Amino acid sequence: MNHPAPFPVRERITSFIDGQWLAPGGKALSIVDPASERQVATLYGADEAQTSAAVEAAHRSFAKRTWVDMGTASKQAVFRRIVDLTRSRLDELAWLECLNTGIPYHYMRERQLPRILRNFSFFADSMSQGVEKAATQDGEYLRFVVREPVGVAALISPWNAPLALASTKIAAALAFGNSCVVKCAEQTPLAVARFMDILAEAGVPPGVVNLVNGLGEVTGRALVRHPLVKAISFTGGTQTGRSIAADAAPLLKRVDLELGGKSANIVAASAPFEDALDGALTSIFTNNGQQCFAGSRILVHRSIAGRFIESFVARARRIRVGHPHDAATEVGPLANAAHYGRVLSYVTLARREGSQLLTGGERPTDHPVGYYLQPTALLARSNRDRVCQEEIFGPVVAFEVFDDFDEAIAIANDSSFGLVSYLWSNDLSECLRAVTKIEAGTVLVNTPMSLDLRLPFAGYKESGLGQEGMEGFRRLYTQEKTAAVALRRPAMARLGAGPA
Ligand code: NAD
Question: Residue 179: enclosing H or E segment and its boundaries?
Answer without folding.
Answer: strand 179-183
